[in-house]
Specification:
mainly alpha; 3 domains; two-stranded antiparallel ribbon; 6 helices; 5 strands; flavoprotein; FAD
């Protein structure tokens, strides 16, 4: 998924607003999935490169990367099938191909989506890989005069400066 959405708008600006938040509550999840998948595949056809996930767009946290599609298309990153097994210095893939004399294999297996550091996970519960935070910062059940939890925001915006500035602005507005 690209950081830039329609007409050059950063995707966090497009999706993190009250209008979209309210609209997503009434729109069927299948329609939201269809719209996001259509837009994402307009720029980079994931099926063509064997990267189409088995899940729908909103069933997992997206990988946001502007450079990877260009690297795949140019051949500087080569997509390989799943690993079937290892030999002494070889990697054998599920399709039977082998790469010999491999120095290093890096397993990118994701991350644990939880907030155990905040009241042992009870303050911000995660259910079915979903969290209920307004603007990915505010637990709606708490008082409006609460300290903002900004770290979670970076999972979705990947260190976006605009997101940090908005977080600081929101914090100042709440505390006034």
């Amino acid at each position: 998924m690209n950081r830039i959405w329609y007409k050059g708008e950063p995707q966090d600006v497009v999706f993190l607003n009250r209008y979209i938040h309210s609209f997503q509550k009434i729109l069927p999840r299948s329609a939201s999935n269809w719209a996001i998948e259509r837009h994402v595949n307009e720029r980079f056809d994931h099926g063509r490169y064997g990267l189409k996930p088995k899940h729908r767009a909103l069933q997992a946290h997206p990988t946001v990367n502007d450079e990877l599609p260009n690297r795949i298309a140019s051949g500087t990153v080569i997509i390989k099938p799943n690993i079937a097994s290892f030999a002494e210095r070889d990697v054998i893939f599920e399709d039977g191909r082998t790469v010999k004399d491999v120095d290093t294999v890096i397993f990118a297996t994701g991350y644990s989506f939880e907030f155990a550091m905040l009241e042992d996970g009870n303050l911000i519960p995660v259910t079915d890989n979903q969290v209920n935070l307004y603007k990915y910062m505010y637990p709606p059940q708490l008082s409006p005069k609460v300290i903002t939890y900004c770290a979670h925001l970076f999972i979705f915006t990947r260190f976006c400066r605009a997101a940090l500035e908005r977080c600081n602005r929101q914090q100042k507005n709440i505390l006034q």
